[in-house]
Specification:
113 residues, 5-stranded antiparallel beta sheet, single chain, 3 helices, alpha+beta
Length: 113
């Protein structure tokens, strides 16, 4: 009787990109203000090998209204963060998370008026 042990093909761990505590604090503060205004209800966080995604939903069973993506490979070219709209268009891109989220701040001010 032969016993074979299963060995993973890759011995090296694959790194996963994620948001750190400060980044999540900035995103969740904006998200919390929209929830308090009754405009957003749900979010999802995906941590992948090449990017981290924070998706914002009006209702749970919908496509995301906005996606905040952190892509480390674009840090020196287009900026680490990107804000994507509902149809996939890039609304803003940059290295500073607060400035990337500024279009959402303007939408909140218009919604509250």
């Amino acid at each position: 009787m032969n016993v074979q042990s299963l060995v993973p093909l890759r011995s090296a761990q694959t790194e996963i990109v994620s948001f750190d505590r400060l980044e999540l604090g900035v995103i969740l503060s904006v998200y919390g203000r929209f929830v308090a205004a009754g405009l957003w209800r749900d979010y999802a966080i995906s941590c992948l090998s090449d990017r981290a995604v924070f998706a914002i939903f009006r209702r749970t069973a919908e496509n995301p209204l906005y996606r905040v993506e952190k892509t480390p490979q674009l840090r020196k070219r287009q900026g680490l963060y990107a804000l994507h709209g509902q149809n996939g268009q890039v609304l803003k891109r940059g290295g500073d998370l607060r400035s990337v989220l500024s279009p959402l701040e303007r939408k909140l001010l218009r919604a509250l008026d």
